[in-house]
Amino acid sequence: MFKSFLGGIHPQDGKKLAMDKPIETMPVPRELVVPMGQHIGAPCNPTVKVGDMVKRGQLIGTSPAFMHADIHSPVSGKVVKIEPRPHSGMGSCMAVVIENDGLDEWADGLPLTRNWQAMENEEILTAIQSAGIVGMGGATFPAHVKLKPSKPVDILILNGAECEPYLTADYRLMLEEGAKIITGTQILQKLLGVKRTVIGIEDNKPEAIKAMTQAAQGTNIEVAALKTKYPQGAEKMLIKVISGREVPMGGLPMDVGAVVQNVGTVAAIADAVEHGLPLTERITTVTGDAIAEPKNLRIRIGTPYQAAIDYCGGFKEPADKLIAGGPMMGMAQTTAQVPVMKGSSGILALTRKMTEHGVEQNCIRCGRCVKACPMGLVPSMLSILSERQDFAACRDDYGLMNCVECGCCTFVCPAKRNIVQYIKNAKGFVRAEMARAKAAAAKKAQENEEQKGAAK
Q: CA 411, CA 12: separation in Å to the nearest integer?
């Protein structure tokens, strides 16, 4: 049995609401809203204009920035608007609004039929990049960047833990499309040249473990049953548990020779490499005690949350909170008109009886958050310093930027302090300061170059 990691918690998982619901393909709505920011990195710029006719899989957004992921039309139809629209993570974001023509025609040449085993590694990487694939567990890191590590790697870890409460999209994907996950995994083995490959699944998902073990027969891919504990699915936790290696503070998985990918990402990679299909749909869990009929949906990017909720019978009780993602790391929304994006693993609607948190009080120095923190931080001090707006101390003295924002600290706090929110606020301030400093340095360098040129 694999060892566990430091800290962690055991929240009520709520997965019974949707875990036995097979994946359904949701009808495509009349209008889709496709944000130009669906990934970590620079937002894309639209490559289409109002009035253009587009087809499914056609490029509609790109960027010259290294850190970005191309965006493609999820449907055939007409571009009716390009304007800022509600966004589940950014508040508002420029989006291409497409009126569905009902034909669902693919862009010319799609889908393809390719033998990935005969492809060169650069061809594989280009296929992944061209498809606009990002980390689909919620991190949305551009896949082609992660799959070209600048350091040698010898272990590939597939994240099938899905430790976030309520969410069952990855679970159903492993049950129903295990063969595709294995194909995608073999493609990554070829690309990375790793010595060992492990699919990590929490032991509260025995059917998924069985399904993936059967799918992996005849390959050198291991399937590991991991102890059920949140946040088992965080990549640093997976690496520690499966390989025994510890990613250094401020480091990346490649620093310890590892690459981690979500099972949904790997399935999308199989589609991209074998068939040339861009990322235009994903599996999303629509669930929560406020939803009439929780489901796991194959849903087009750009579908408004409200349309997905309506397809699941709407609200059976008033929803006190609508969350993009799960209850631990998800983000509360102010409107159901935000669209499904590449990283939308779940749409969660909870009633008041599930969200009631209690009145926030002063920290009582009990240390429960310290014990629960999987990163070995002191969340109580980070929250207090953030409250005082002493962001420098958060960063320099208490390892602020190493927080993975898992929410364990808030979950265990008897004083009902919103610890992780204080930490997120501090991190946002520090990132803004870093961006300003970088911009100032670039401006100064440019001025120096101009002065040198004038002197000549």
A: 11
**Residues found in the chain:** 456
Q: Are strands 155-159 and 258-262 parallel, antiparallel or unpaired?
A: parallel
CA-to-CA distance for 79 and 54, rounded, in angstroms?
7
Distance CA 17, CA 105 (A): 35
Integer Cα distance of 9 and 62 in angstroms: 40
- Supply the pLDDT for residue 456: 67
The C-alpha angle with vertex 84 and arms to 83 and 88, in degrees rounded to 5, equals 140
Q: 3-class SS at 224?
A: strand
Helix (H, G, I), strand (E, B) or coil at 142: strand
Distance separating alpha carbons of residues 59 and 74, to the nearest angstrom: 10
Q: Is the pTM of this model over 0.70?
A: yes
Calculate helix-pair angle for 263-275, 169-176, nearest 10 degrees: 50
Q: What is the mean pLDDT of each run of 10 residues along the chain (456 residues)?
A: 84 96 98 97 96 98 96 98 95 97 97 96 97 93 96 97 97 98 98 97 97 98 96 95 92 96 98 98 98 98 98 97 96 96 98 92 96 96 97 96 95 96 95 90 86 77
How many Cβ atoms from other residues are within 10 Å of residue 234's Cβ? 24
pLDDT in the model for residue 178:
98
Angle (nearest 5°) at CA 71 between 67 and 72: 155
Nearest to 246 by CA among 5, 437, 2, 446: 5
Sign of the dihedral through C-alpha 181, 186, 190, 194:
positive
